Amino acid sequence: MDERFEQPEREPHGASGQPDTTSQSESGRDPERERLLRETQIEIDRMKAAAMEEIQSSTAAYVQMQVQQACAMAQARIFMEEQEKTARSKEQSRQFSRLGLVLFAFMGVAFAAQLVLIVITMLVGLVGGLDVDFDNQTVQIVISAISMYGVAFPVAALLMRLIPKQGRPGGETWSAMQLAACLVICIGIGFVGILLSQFVDVVFPSGGDGVQPEDMMTGAGMLLNIAMVVFAAPVVEELLYRKMLIDRIAAYGDGVSVVVSGLLFGLAHGNFSQFFYAFGLGALFAYVYIKTGHIGYTIGFHMFFNLIGGVFTVELNKGLMEVRDPAGMVARLEQLFGVDLGPVVPLVCSALLTVYLVMSVVCAVGGLVILISRRKEIVFRPGEKPMVWGRRFSAVVLNPGVILYLLLCAGLFRMSSLV
């Protein structure tokens, strides 16, 4: 065969002597490169996983640390709040104890002064040959007034100056209609309080006749009753149990001031015949004072109530019982008109007492209507230093001063039921 037509054998390498990569590219990827890529990807994934685990671990530790810090701060805040509440309750308890001691001293000094005056009067009577009748109501009222208003009250006022004030009553301006509404409520509270006293006396009889204040006033003259009951008593009692007392507890809240003032005032009367209406009136007067800051309002209300309840009704009862008027008013009228008014006086007194009773019932119903219709306007502020919930009773009552005052009042209640 002709050599020109013979094909030379193809060498495994190209003409340049380099390996032929065409066959490799055609046969697929390089296994070594594939292995390296896989190992690299595995290493990358492992590093990512390790990084994620480290991030998660760091995040969890950080979150846990933040939670622990928050819990520690919350516990510290709770501890500090408890410490502050405990300190506040202790200070409030000390304040009430000091006030209780002053009121205890007020009543104790009054009793001691009465004994001293009785002894002095007896000695003066022996030296001067005078026979002083201590069973006479006029003598009893004079001795009681001098000892309480002339001796005990100045001592209590001086002691009150040693106790720091806490807060101050509000300065609201009340209209004439608001004051008139309070006057209606005042008369209604007095009527309801007397009914409650009679109910308690019927359900829980004391076994004794008791000392009735109106009995003492019946035997005294009208002018003396007006001087002591209408003027002296309201001024002293409102200054002591409203202004001086509330000025030193106003920061603890309006509700606390109203209840404490009313309760201590009611207990000071020392008998159930006066406790209920004295408590109600004391609470009402305390609310008026803590809202307005005008002690003159409460003194005026107190004077008006004592005038109609402590003088007007007593004088009408005298006429109803045909006790000839000590002031001589009927006698002067008889002399002026030249007629005998003896048969007329009981009838007039009975009619006036009926009018007073009807007025009291109307005021009781009207007062209830006013309280219901104006209930949204009756607001008790918490105060600058509110009392701790759950510790109010212990702070107000469970302290030496108030306990002594309560024991003294309990003794008065017991004595009034036995005499």
What does this structure look like?
- This protein has 419 residues and is an all-alpha fold.
- The protein is built from 13 helices and no strands.
- Helix 2 packs across helix 13 and helix 4 packs across helix 9.
- One of its GO terms (biological process) is proteolysis.
Largest sheet: none
Helix and strand succession? HHHHHHHHHHHHH
Q: Which blocks of ≥5 consecutive residues have pLDDT under 50?
A: 1-19, 21-26
Q: Tally the helices.
A: 13
Class derived from helix and strand content: mainly alpha
Quick description:
InterPro entries: CAAX_protease (IPR052710), Rce1/LyrA-like_dom (IPR003675). Pfam families: Rce1-like. The protein is an all-alpha fold.
